[in-house]
Design brief:
14% of the residues lie in helices and 44% in strands. The chain has 621 residues and is mainly β. The strands form eight sheets. It has an eight-stranded mixed beta sheet with strand order 7-6-10-4-3-13-16-15, with no helix packed on it. A five-stranded antiparallel beta sheet has the order 1-2-5-9-8, with no helix packed on it. It has a five-stranded mixed beta sheet with strand order 30-37-36-32-34.
Length: 621
């Protein structure tokens, strides 16, 4: 051995927001040391504990370095953390005892440098390095869930890598989303072996709840009244709304063919109006079973346009998309063909559309990633649509929000024929963060508007502006939303009298959702007493809060009543098995009605005759 030393650096790329390490190995040797001269095996444990709303982690690193040559060994080891990386109680050691690290800092990083006390030398000899510290900002308690993005050492040069997360023993939270999927979940422990992604992203908890306040600014610049509409957050396959108030209430609400939740407002000449939506929105990690049937029924009428070209969903350069046929292929093409342009986020950029961004791939923001996915998918026969809404992001560099200045985001959905459901994906955030947004999603995407039939309508919340205002307030919360299911019946008129002939009478009424949540498959039952009802049971597919729908039915006097001669009929309306309305009508035998009509006719004729005689007599006089 000589005194010459050589240095080999290994850089580890990881998720900047949560953690990034720079590992430097120093080798003493008569030759230059290369990665092939040693093997490093990593085992990292994250032991969580919770105090009130905050989470802390006890982190344990074990790095086993195996010498693959007899003339090279590891002498020093260093690790660097960003200054924002909140760590404390640092302890380091090797197989022979405690190592006191040298700590240096600059404006960017804090560096820990350790020198092994008695490094083992020789082929297949092993040196173990141990590092323990506490960290308070790795796992985040975000409202109803715990969220984490863990760093992954990419350049392992054949070594193994094991990550273990141990949850507090007293928690009931389970892992609901993981990218990639863990190799083992046992009790309160989650294990990944040799992950191949840049980052492990995981959520513990089944749903996230957001307290939401949205402001819509409307202005009529005309000298005559105009009717306009706004889009409120809708229920979807992964989202449920709980409305507290819409002030002022719209004159009418309805759902369009895409499933948007729209409210109509009438504006007087030159009138301005501000609408405020308040409520809770719950986002789920798994599709809502109660919505599956509705989504599939809606698809029947949506199929007519889900493959059509639209203003921003056209591709002329078909040669660029010739080698793909699956949704995953389309997603990879969209995520990897473009470069996110952060300079466009705060500028008045124009939407390029799919063909435009293929010509300028370095000018993309979320709309371009989304447009390219939809246009390509539709060209390949895959149903696709755009979602515009809100992305709950901790780091705008990794999860940028760029639809407009009011922190909006856009992402696509495609329809999986195998699963018979809509699947949300986000090629933008995969491009910027390296996290997989195809095989699983997250709980940070909130739907404001669905664009399937048109690529630019309706406008989502945040885009109804008359000035520079902050119109979106969304915060994760631990509040428990409560369903308030309430329905009412309006505008049901039953004639005071009907005949017992064979005539069918037509009845109608309106069912209104007076509660705070969507109602699905609402059973409406019309029952008659001495009356036969044409359609006794009717199902209303859905009612958004404040929405009302018309119910039509037919009725006639029952044949049994003609024999008994009952003189009164009754109609009762039941919803969810509860009687909400009851009305009576007088039944007049048809023969009486004929006599009454006949007598009335005679009276009219006689009156006309007498009136004529009186007029003639008066003239003679």
């Amino acid at each position: 051995m000589t005194n010459n030393k050589s240095i080999s650096n290994i850089k580890i790329k990881i998720f900047k927001l949560i953690l990034f390490f720079l590992l430097f190995f120093w080798f003493s040797s008569i030759k230059n040391a290369y990665a092939a001269d040693f093997r490093a095996d990593y085992e990292v444990e994250y032991n969580l504990s919770q105090f009130k709303e905050s989470l802390s982690s006890k982190v344990k690193f074990k790095i086993k370095i195996t010498n693959l040559r007899g003339d090279v060994y590891v002498n020093k080891f260093a690790i660097s953390f960003p200054r924002s990386f909140v760590i404390s109680n640092i302890q380091s050691s090797d197989d022979h005892g405690t190592i006191v690290p040298g700590i240096t800092s600059d404006d960017v990083n804090t560096k820990l440098e350790m020198e092994f006390s008695q490094p083992n030398v020789g082929r297949e000899s092993i040196n173990n390095f141990y590092l323990n510290f506490d960290q308070t900002n790795l796992f985040k308690a975000n409202g109803n869930v715990w969220e984490v993005a863990l760093p992954v050492i990419e350049n392992r040069k054949g070594g193994s890598y094991k990550i273990v997360v141990t949850l507090p023993s007293d928690t009931d939270k389970k892992i609901s989303i993981s990218k990639p999927k863990p190799d083992l979940v046992s009790g309160n422990q989650v294990i990944w072996n040799n992950p191949q992604t840049k980052t492990i992203y995981a959520i513990f908890g089944d749903s996230q709840i957001y307290r939401t306040e949205l402001t819509y600014h409307l202005k009529n610049s005309e000298i005559y009244p105009v009717s306009t509409e706004v889009a409120f957050p809708p229920d979807s396959l992964y989202q449920k709304i709980f409305i507290e108030s819409i002030n002022p209430e719209p004159s009418k609400v309805y759902q369009d063919i895409d499933g948007n939740y729209l409210g109509k407002y009438l504006l007087k000449p030159l009138e301005s109006k501000t609408i405020i939506f308040r409520g809770l929105i719950e986002v789920f990690s798994e599709p809502r079973e109660e919505m599956m049937s509705r989504m599939r029924k809606m698809l029947i009428s949506q199929k007519d346009y889900l493959l059509s070209q639209q203003k921003f969903w056209q591709i002329k350069s078909l040669d660029k998309i010739s080698n793909m046929s699956t949704a995953e292929g389309v997603y990879n093409f969209s995520a990897n063909s473009l470069k996110y342009n952060y300079k466009k986020v705060n500028s008045n950029n124009s939407r390029l559309g799919a063909e435009g961004v293929l010509l300028r791939p370095d000018q993309a923001v979320c709309l371009e990633f989304t447009d390219l996915f939809i246009a390509t998918a539709r060209e390949k026969g895959i149903f696709a649509r755009e979602i515009e809404g809100y992305g709950f992001s901790y780091d705008p560099q990794l999860q940028p929000l760029s639809l407009v200045s009011d922190v909006l985001h856009a992402w696509p959905e495609y329809y999986s024929k195998e699963g018979e459901l809509w699947v949300p994906v986000d090629p933008t955030w995969e491009n910027t963060s390296g996290i997989d947004y195809f095989s699983s999603f997250d709980l940070n995407h909130i739907v404001f508007a669905i664009h399937g039939k048109k690529s630019d309508y309706p406008l989502p919340a945040g885009m109804y502006k008359t000035g520079d205002s902050k119109d979106i307030s969304i915060k994760a919360t631990t509040e428990i939303p409560v369903d308030k299911k309430e329905v009412g019946i309006a505008n049901f008129n039953l004639p005071l009298r009907i005949s017992d002939n064979k005539k069918d009478y037509r009845g109608k009424f309106f069912v209104k959702n007076n509660g705070n949540v969507y109602l699905l498959e609402i059973p409406v039952e019309v029952k008659g007493e001495n009356l036969e009802i044409g359609q006794k049971k009717i199902f209303i597919d859905s009612l958004a809060p404040y929405e009302e729908k018309e119910v039509d039915f037919t009725y006639r006097v029952s044949s049994a009543n003609k024999k008994t001669g009952k003189s009164q009929g009754k109609i009762s309306i039941f919803i969810y098995g509860n009687k909400l309305l009851e009305r009576y009508t007088e039944i007049i035998p048809f023969v009486y009605l004929v006599l009454i009509i006949g007598a009335f006719s005679v009276f009219v004729v006689a009156a006309v005759f007498l009136t004529g005689k009186l007029i003639l007599k008066k003239r003679k006089t």
